[in-house]
Amino acid sequence: MGCCHLLEDGEASVMIDTGMVGEPFFIRRLVRRLGLKSNSIKAILLTHGHLDHAGNLAWLKRWTGAMILAHPEEQLHVNGTYPYQGINRWCGRLEAAGRLLFRYRPATIDEFIHDGQELPFWGGLRVIHLPGHTKGHCGFYSAKHDLLFSGDLFASYFFNVHRPPAILNSVPELFPISVEKVRRLNPRWLVPSHYDFLDGELHRKRFAQLYGMGRQSSPR
Fold first, then answer.
1. Per DSSP, what are the bridge partners of residue 68?
2. Residue 186: its pLDDT value, please?
3. For 116-152, b where at least 16 C-beta lie within 10 A, e where not — what string?
4. The pairing of beta strand 67-70 with beta strand 41-45
5. What is the sign, positive or negative, of the torsion defined by CA atoms of 196, 146, 24, 166?
6. Residue 153 domain flag
7. For residue 220, is it within any domain?
8. pLDDT at 21
9. What is the pLDDT of residue 22?
């Protein structure tokens, strides 16, 4: 239901997010299958610090020695100390239960990232700040592949394409700004963190339908 992504690039590979339950097994298996080693992963990019994205952050940092890169607003989420307010208190309660159940360990962000920053991974990744779900929520755009990893800007399932539930969104009033950023960027492919099939074209179409965007222009 929730995905982290390994961007394979030999000895300069990177992870986007770390997942939660069971992911260490799958990450190790995928690394071996690709003929990589743990230290082939040089960076861990966080879309945001919610438990289902940072659940294995401390483990992955220890296993790979990779640096953690994320927006500065996400350190409190990673620490489990974000001051949720109003209906978002339910998000805090759910995460507190999850941290206890899964023996979560926090980690320190090594390098803070910002909107528009160009990262030297996977042929170049641009940081796209997409607040709404959290204050520091970010996507990562590959101009080389015309592909945006959009994090939790939306979830894409055949039975329900939706914005994250209200209890999980810290600054929902900022969603329109983030949607407009993606509208202007107009990526050919879009990969969220929660989906049924890994199909960037399909998720791009679903995003357009959800947010009332026009049809995608011809591939660049």
1. 44
2. 96
3. eeebebbeebbbbbbbbbbbbbbbbbbeebbbbbbbb
4. parallel
5. negative
6. yes
7. no
8. 81
9. 84
Contact 40, 13 (CB under 8 A): yes
Segment-wise mean pLDDT, segments of 10 residues, the chain, 220 residues: 93 96 92 97 98 97 98 98 96 96 95 98 98 98 98 96 96 97 97 97 96 56
Q: What is the CA radius of gyration of the chain?
A: 16
Residue pair 71/110 in contact by the 8 Å Cβ criterion:
no
pLDDT at 133: 98
Determine contact, residues 45/16, Cβ cutoff 8 Å: yes
Number of independent structural domains in the chain = 1
Q: What is the CATH classification number for the domain harbouring 58?
A: 3.60.15.10
Q: What is the DSSP letter of 56?
A: T
Provide the residue range defining the domain that includes 185: 5-210
